[in-house]
Queue: 4 jobs
Job 1
Amino acid sequence: MSKVSVQKITFGGETLQDPYPMYARMHEGGPLHLLDVDGQWGAWAIFSHAECSSIAKDPRLSAKRAQQMLALLPPDSQSEFRELARMLNLWLIFMDAPEHTRLRKLLNKGFAPAAVEGLRPQVEAIVEGMLKPLERGATVELMQEFANPMPVRIISEMLGVPPELHDTFVNWSRAIAVFRGNPERTVEQARAAQDALIAMTDFFRTAVAERRRNKGSDLISLLIDIEEDGEVLTEEELYAQCIALLFAGHETTRNLIGNGMYTLLKHPQETAELREKPEMIRSAVEEILRYESPVQFTARVLKEDIEVCGQRIPKRWSILCMLGAANRDPKQFKEPNRLDLKRLNNQHLAFSAGPHFCIGNQLARLEGQIALLNLVQRFPEMKFAGPPPEWAPTFGFRGLKSLAVTL
């Protein structure tokens, strides 16, 4: 059995602002570490690309981890959040086979590459409409003006959420992200996330009933109609997937756009080349996904005792797959800390791997390509302005709270 290092870390402070020096130290010490987080709890964490990819595909590990999220809350408060765990466990990403297999097969119909590519004119029109009022030379808070509202507008239009509720859905989405993205989560964060999930479920319960009476061309109508071999979505599954799609469609894509512009502004030579060669945008977005991954880790729970990297880990322990670290693994990527917008064979894990590979990856890529290329072409003089960019306090979902720029 290999000797395991116990690493004392915090997911806030300097690590939140820049986790990559910590990742580099972990890579030097081996692929697997036992984390001591502020002396309060421990978790096994995998930092290497090869092992993260392998674990994500291992059927001996479970994605049903919502209950584990409550384990760090005070014991006397955990019963208050049974509904929170129950609702999250209805999300596709928190399911195991065979339930996951059945549901994924149904949902794939709505996210086939051809279906997503068909959304390109709609996405381009939304981006055009949101950027047109912005003037060169103006100072704006780019997260607030564009990166936050753009993806929620797109996924909301797909789901038929009215414009007057977009800001409300952003707030609900952020409440869930704060709870899910903080390993050191609090009772207050759990309560806000539970309230948000209940409110969103109530909205979609009404919306689904309306679509059953008046079918449209939106995603809810498609989800109601999809069926294969007699299999259909149950009512609760339908509400839960609508919420999950809205959350994922907003939260991770806002971070892709914000992280992308932040990264490009820090690398003006690479950005100038992208502006001159727009055909690079596909590889550029893949490199941004690797370099500043919107999702920094995902978790699995052991169904049985298993051996990982020579270490025996008992049943019911959690393993964190540190996707952000895997995407900077020097054994997988040449010069992993260098931004290379033309990087070839970029097998990053920004969308995870295996059965839970992100179902909305094509839509996120499409939105990222259109948004980032439009920004760099429309505003060639864009630069940082005002206070330094501030990272949101959600380590698991790496994204900016604010990004002030002069266009």
Note: The radius of gyration is 21 Å.
Job 2
Amino acid sequence: MKKLASNLSSWIFIGLLLGVLAGVWWHNHLFDLIAANGLDTLSSDAQKALAGRFVYGFKIFSDIFLNLVKVIVAPLVFSLLLVGLANTGGFKAMGRIGAKTLIYFTFATLIALVMGLVIVNIFEPGKALNVASATGIITKPQPFNLTNFVLHIFPKNIIDAMAHNDILPIIVFVLFFAAATSAIGEKGKVVIKFFDAVAHIMLKMTGYIMYFAPLAVFGAVAAVISVHGVGVLMGYIKLILCFFGGLAGFIFVVLPLICYVLRIEYWKLLKYIRDPMLLAFGTSSSEAAMPKTINALERFGCPDRIIGFVLPLGYSFNLDGSIMYMTFATVAIAQAYGIDLSIGEQLTMMGMLLVTSKGMAGVPRASLVVIAGMLDAFHIPAEGLSVIIAIDWLLDMGRSATNVAGNAVATAVISKLENALGQPGIENDAAATEKQA
């Protein structure tokens, strides 16, 4: 299992290639049949809609994968959010450091969310995919009604909300549930421990479900190319360039500006964290690079007490690359289906992600679960998740490396605000001398 997991990106890439080959063959065969039956006089869109009826043999693989992902959305969001709120309650013991950490995490998250929205709205990479007719789905945005929206976020049945993966009602319920759990003291800790175990189980299930990703990629890509032809891949190129451009902007513009304002030597820090960033990029997991990141921050001069507090929390609350991807990918999928999300809807999405992204572990492809919830919440066809997962393995590598950089800067920022950021080696040398004494 571990060997398979380590090669998952390779298998997804193989599934992508096989999906392209199968799609090209079936595309030629389908349109030859259409011409042979005298249906080539139909419009291009009508021919594609007709061809879309004959790709369900491929789509079954992606549909199974989607069902497996959607079934864990509600319990995963519920458990992670509850445990995350319980951990936030622990900041009272840390006082000043905890408050500064939360403020910075919120600030960095907002920047990442806004960057994702700005990039996807300016360049509109999803429109290049144009996969709406591949599934025969015609989707129109529903009119926004403020009264219905407000009533909707206060659930009358939490089981029904979880069954339909309604994220906002779940968030509201968890907020009340967490407050009540904290209010009963020691008895509440039993509940928190239980849901902490549930959260770990759900994350483990996420890992298992991802083993089906290569088949899902094969089916999704083959179905799309069967209808649209291999030219649809050009849309992926634009999507990749736009997203990696956004990540580069965050790493080489946003983070340096934050460090410049606080007089932190960012480029020196980047040199120290280069190896953990490469490790995160290669494994598609920012958590895999945590030990190396800790060592790098110690050498940079961050004190152990701040590293031990900020960095672990950062891997649950400050995944900048993954957070940027959530807004970018959700809106890009909507664009691919010709759905025009209003500014209000996108701001609502940003607010939801500001909360739901907290507690999402930095494991490979975990953000897909949150995106699946966003697709349901905004009535975007879930099939779009299968389309974007074809290149998710590559995008995941970039956002994992960005997560490492973002958390390293967060630790350095809190160290600087606490006037505890020393010269490289000083903090370690002092600690070592004290231990020897």
Note: The chain has one domain: 2-436.
Job 3
Amino acid sequence: MLEKITPRLPSGMRDFLPEELIRRQFVIERVAQVFEAFGYEPLQTPVLELEETLLGKYGADAERLIFHAQHPGGKEKLALRYDLTVPLARAFAMHEGKLSLPFRRYQIAPVWRAERPQRGRFREFYQCDVDCIGVEGMEADAEVISVAVAALQRLGFSDFAVKINNRKLLTGIGMYVGLEGAALTDLYRSIDKLDKIGADGVREELLRSGIAAELVTRVMELIGAETAAERGYAAAGARLAHLRQTLAAVPLALEGLAELERVFAYLEASEIPSEMVAFDPAMVRGLGYYTGPIFEAVLLSADPEERVGSLAGGGRYDDLIGLFRKTSLPTVGVSLGIERLIVLMEKRGMYPEPLQRTLVQVLVTVFNESLRPAALRLASQLRKAGLSVEVFAGSAKLGKQLAYANKRGIPLVALLGEDELAAGAVKFKRLRDHHESLCPYAEAAQRAQALLRSLTDH
């Protein structure tokens, strides 16, 4: 006899019950529609990758979070994918002969990271990525930012802004004050904590890393650590012009500034609202493979319960694909924080009403076992018309069957008793308002569809 086990989940993992999963599918479907509207195609990669594919791509801090996987006697060293970006680079290098450039792809799938679980942060979670391979110009960067903005708007968000910066500018600032190598890495790491530890905390951390106080002061002034990034195209233009003058002797910084100017120009031409963009020279993004423009969408909310981190983030990573082929290709992408968006939409009540709690549209009741064949035939006819139909299983009085449909969130019930059969008719009951409608058996599908449409028309 098997020993009983107390049911538990690993830390940071979740089950999704039907009602939750329907809401998640609602979000994913709408995001995918936006991706496809911009010309991005779906791609799927495996859950497991070779360790050699993932290691050495994210930086030491991130790679400590990778889950390693092995089976008894297995010869290959495997790991669960940490994100969808490195697998994209590997997949493109393997299959590029079948693909056209530029290659626009999206993928919505789970990834795994051994992070400390907290509100809005899990060890298994979904990412929603769009990436464009093969476009060197900043039109691709502006496009993926536009995709992220459109997806957030499609879900109903309006109180957010996309902060934009450039890794070349950050590196140029470091060069301007004489930092390089490990000191430059320390600069990235400390500035990235600005939102968490504040300007004073960043300053202290830079001083502890051995950077001279005078240099720390100059860096903090250049990145505007003491002031919040001002939104809008005019503000971005003024800030970029100031930095162009200050960093005139640093070619890499000027290159980064020129790229940012083009990104903002393309975003404005794409009619992205001015209040939804901001130039933020203090924004870093942690992953080590970024090479150019970087961006992050943040919620503009004073509610402490809505501080769940960025809503979307991404950037240009022109060198990554080159790790899997002879030469690299320019690539840029963005990932939506789907888990955080779902948490916020639940808190804000942003799901449309009614959003069915079940995929079943019609429950066909069974008055007694002798009438079950008739119920099955009716269900078959309704399904042929494209409806999702369940036939009540087991034996129960009609009241209990109606209560079951109500609890499941099934909006429509078909009543097919002896009287209806004798009259060649079907009676439908709409549970929301208890409206009943009798129709000829041959018209059952059309009547059910009309009753269901009435639920969304009002």
Note: Residues 368 and 395 are 7 Å apart (CA to CA).
Job 4
Amino acid sequence: MKENKWIRGAIPALLLHCSIGTVYCWSTFSGEIANYIGAKKSSTEWAFSLAIFFLGMSAAFLGDVVEKDIHKSSLIATICFTLGMVGTGFGIMLKSLPLIFVCYGCIMGIGLGTGYLSPVKTLMLWFQDKKGLATGLAVAGFGLAKAIASPIMQKILTAFDNNPAPMFFIMGGVYCVMMFIGHLLLKKPSTWVEKHSEGGGLKEFFKTLGENFKTSFGNKTFIGIWIMFYINITCGLALISQEKMIFKAIGLSVGVAATLASVTAIANAAGRLGFSAWADFFKDRNTIYKIIFILSILFTGVTVITQGIVKGAGVPVLAVICVGLLIMVNAGYGGGFSNVPTLLSDHFGMKQISAVHGMCLSAWAFAGLTGNQMATAIVNRVGEFKEITLSDGSTASVNPVGYQTVLYVTLALYIVAFIVCNIMIPKLNNKTKKEEA
């Protein structure tokens, strides 16, 4: 096949990321899973947390596998993601929460990590003059997947009387085809030549893993990038996980809330593409993170000062401020993801970017365990749930004080992240960026 950057880089990246990005559709069917298997919704939430944890850790452990053979890693991603989806369907049929944890959390999580990493370096090699735009394009697919898949999944759920099992079987088959085509198409440019050690078994694998860990976490700059990446994800997950209930807390109807959920999903994708493409114009790519954190601090601070979530149901202007906050958080959350590989390549070069990027994605793993769980703990312990009347006349049980309290924590964390990206990450320009020999 003719070497074309769109056919060999961009299209397969979108096929892979638009498939695995549906992990963010969890809120679409988590309640239905809990009801069908007879479990508490808070218990089923651990399936999503485990999926994000295994995503980050598999990326960290398998980064060198991706580095050496993207065909092997993309095939691993296709198999694991498909088995995870189908296995989750069987777990629902058997009403087995542990099986759901294993399939959706562990097996599918491994597919997420390897699938996320596989196209990134390839894209940066095909689009060397516009690395940010290239990675933003692929990672935007990850964010856009929720907006595309959520309504489809909802229709399938409705067609099968809210039994989620058939949905997992159907969507698992669709994603298997999409990812396998992406696997077949994905290829690095023939002009890129790199040498890797052959074989070595487990001993060589763990030796290389140790070397990658030392290279990464032994470097102050990497630690700074890891910390700000972790904070951005933690804050994003904390607010995104409560998004649906925040919309209700400010009095919006279920229909409006659903529409706005699609808007925030699009903002997530737009942030991945927009912030990364914008970063290409800066001499120092870290500037884009400073912008993201300044905007996040500004929007969060205004919502905190005005008590937007607590008073939003009675004051339309404050409700608009809350919606603006969630749009900004989603955009900044996406932008933080898309700029990490290019920022790392500026500091560490392209030679081992998949391995270093994989190590950095371990921040995603730990944020997956802390972000939404932290928000849930605050909401369950601060304030109280009360019934309010929504704009369509229906009622909902919400805890505005609890959601508002989450903002105090995220505001403090955003400030820490802004300080870190200013003092721990050195400035680079086009002349001092790390280049490969």
Note: The chain has two domains: 1-185, 213-437.
